[in-house]
Amino acid sequence: MDTRSREGLGRRLPESRFEAKIRFHLPRDEAEILYSSIIPEAKDIPSKRTSVSMALTEDGLNLMIKASDPVALRAALNSFLRFIDSILETLHELDSLVKRR
Predict the structure, then answer these.
(1) CATH homologous superfamily of domain 2-100?
(2) Residue among 101, 95, 98, 4 at smallest CA distance from 47
(3) How far apart are CA 43 and CA 38, in angstroms?
(4) What is the pLDDT of residues 39-83, one digit of tens each?
(5) What does pTM read for this prediction?
C-alpha cells in the first residue's frame, strides 16, 4: 500500500531522492499484527514530503519510506521504527505473560 500525506491532497510528492527500505524477518502472525497496527499511521502521514509503502511477505514485512529530503526521511524513519519497536515489545511481553500461566 502506497500512502501520501493528507497535506495538499491531489498534489504529487516532490521528487523522492531519499529512501529507506527495511525488511523485518518475522513469523507470519507477528508480521500480520504489525502490518495491521502500523497501516493506519502509514495512511495518515502528516507531511507532504514523505510517502510510505508496506507489504507483507512470506518471511515478514517490508517497509519503504521515500522522502524529498533527508530531514523528512529521518523523521519518518524514527517515527515508524518507534511504532514497530513498541508493537513488537508489547507482543513479546504478552507472549511471555501467557507462557508463565
Answers:
(1) Alpha-D-phosphohexomutase, C-terminal domain (3.30.310.50)
(2) 4
(3) 9
(4) 999 888 878 899 999 999 999 999 999 999 999 999 999 999 999
(5) 0.78
Domain positions in the chain? 2-100
Q: What are the cell numbers at 55?
A: 507489504
Distance of CA 12 to the CA centre of its chain: 20
Residue type at 20 in one-letter notation? A
In terms of Cα–Cα distance, which of 28, 22, 7 is closest to 83?
22
For residues 93, 94, 95, 101, the Cα torsion angle rounded to the nearest 10 degrees is: 110
Given a contact cutoff of 8 angstroms between Cβ atoms, the answer to whether 63 and 52 are in contact is yes
Compute the half-sphere exposure of residue 38: CA atoms within 13 Å on the CB side of its CA.
Answer: 30
Indicate if the pLDDT at residue 21 is higher than 50: yes
